[in-house]
């Protein structure tokens, strides 16, 4: 599964996600090749390729309806593709190998778009749902202990485990959803717009927590987001979905070299500029410097650095 990428000039970003500037020698827990998903006659994805590096937070962006959520559902085996292959943690989960997904479902955690918790269950009981599903032999006492531990890990006070979702603020609900996604000690974390609907401070705190958990737990994160601040602050690389494909993947500095109109409009439009100017979490010392993916990916370095000329030049 481990492959070495040769350094490539990214000045003209080809519509090919394999074109990356940095030599990366780690492995890829997610490898998607030639993915096509159709609904009726409409192809949402057409021959899409993407490789996710171990240890990175990969931001996934694209206009509304470009197929970000469908892509996530495909990777976790909820959407059977029309064509292509998806390898997750060394297992091919598509085609005749679809059964393999059963054996690895406990190795990832998911926070779906909207992040719905079961409203009739407490936070702790919500966290216990996947635990009971995969480990029915666990005693009630151990289940309670694990649920409280995951609740605290996600930045909530232990008392929150006994609360119902309706008693929580928006930011606390997202953390509770994160606690549930972390229930099984996953290697991979899938988050679909986790900070949507949060105020900027709540969103920044969630980002900070996510970066910290990623680095301390050694997670690989597939993070669908519209949030430009999130992309700048915590994502190692960003994959851009358009025209049914991943049209580019790289650090923001690398993406800015693309002349694709959507990329320019998104990152260099008025909102993109404000996000660029904002102080990234890393330089503010709020999250640890460096992480598995970016260290191995030298010279690309941590994505969260100011996008000045120097940063672009060395990326
Ligand atoms: N189960 C489904 N049946 C039919 N069309 C679907 C289904 N799921 C998604 N789609 C369509 O696929 C496209 C991509 O959806 P989605 O992945 O949710 O977009 P987004 O990038 O906003 O997350 C949309 O046009 C959506 O209407
Ligand atoms: Mg979506």
Write the topology of this structure.
Layout: E1 30-39, E2 42-52, E3 57-62, H1 68-75, E4 83-88, E5 91-92, H2 100-104, E6 108-111, H3 123-134, H4 140-153, H5 170-181, E7 188-192, H6 200-217, E8 220-224, H7 228-234, E9 237-242, E10 245-250, H8 252-255, H9 261-268, H10 270-277, H11 292-296, H12 309-314
The chain binds adenosine-5'-diphosphate (ADP) and magnesium ion.
Magnesium ion is lined by residues 68-69, 113, 192.
Domain ABC transporter: 30-268
InterPro entries: AAA+_ATPase, ABC_transporter-like_ATP-bd, ABC_transporter-like_CS, P-loop_NTPase
GO molecular function, one term: ATP binding
Give your account of this protein's structure:
- This is ABC transporter ATP-binding protein.
- Pfam families: ABC_tran.
- Keywords: ATP-binding, Nucleotide-binding, Transport.
- One of its GO terms (molecular function) is ATP binding.
- With 315 residues, this protein is of the alpha/beta class.
- The protein is 34% helix and 19% strand.
- The protein has a six-stranded mixed β-sheet, with helices on both faces. The chain has a four-stranded antiparallel β-sheet with strand order 2-1-4-5.
- The N terminus and C terminus are likely disordered.
- The structure holds adenosine-5'-diphosphate and magnesium ion.
- Magnesium ion binds next to helix 1.
> Helix and strand string, N-terminal first?
EEEHEEHEHHHEHEHEEHHHHH
Q: Which parts are unreliable, with pLDDT below 50 for 5 consecutive residues or more?
A: 1-19, 282-315
List the bound ligands: adenosine-5'-diphosphate, magnesium ion
Overall geometry comes to globular
**How widely separated are the two ends?**
25 Å
Number of strands: 10
Q: Kindly name the structural category.
A: alpha/beta
Structure annotation, total helices: 12
């Amino acid at each position: 599964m481990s492959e070495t990428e040769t350094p490539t000039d990214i000045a003209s970003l080809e519509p090919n996600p394999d074109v990356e500037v940095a030599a990366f020698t780690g492995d890829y827990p997610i490898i998607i090749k030639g993915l096509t998903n159709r609904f009726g006659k409409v192809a949402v994805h057409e021959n899409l390729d993407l490789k996710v590096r171990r240890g990175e937070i990969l931001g996934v962006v694209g206009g509304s309806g470009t197929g970000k959520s469908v892509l996530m559902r495909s990777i976790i085996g909820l959407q059977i593709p029309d064509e292509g292959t998806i390898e997750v943690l060394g297992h091919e989960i598509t085609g005749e190998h679809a059964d393999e997904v059963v054996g690895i479902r406990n190795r990832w955690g998911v926070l779906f778009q909207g992040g719905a918790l079961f409203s009739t269950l407490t936070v702790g009981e919500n966290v216990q749902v996947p635990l009971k599903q995969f480990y029915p032999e666990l005693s009630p006492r151990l289940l309670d202990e694990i649920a409280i531990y995951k609740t605290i890990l996600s930045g909530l006070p232990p008392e929150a485990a006994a609360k119902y979702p309706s008693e929580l603020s928006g930011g606390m609900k997202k953390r509770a959803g994160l606690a549930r996604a972390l229930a099984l000690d996953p290697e991979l974390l899938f988050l679909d717009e986790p900070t949507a609907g949060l105020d900027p401070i709540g969103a920044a705190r969630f980002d900070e927590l996510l970066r910290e958990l990623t680095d301390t737990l050694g997670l690989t994160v597939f993070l669908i987001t519209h949030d430009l601040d999130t992309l700048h602050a915590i994502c190692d690389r960003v994959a851009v979905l358009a025209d049914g494909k991943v049209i580019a993947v790289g650090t923001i500095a690398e993406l800015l070299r693309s002349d694709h109109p959507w990329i320019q409009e998104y990152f260099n439009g008025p909102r993109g500029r404000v996000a660029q100017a904002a102080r990234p979490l890393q330089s503010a010392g709020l999250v640890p410097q460096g992480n598995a993916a970016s260290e191995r990916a030298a010279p690309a370095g941590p994505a969260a650095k100011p996008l000045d000329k120097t940063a672009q030049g060395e990326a």
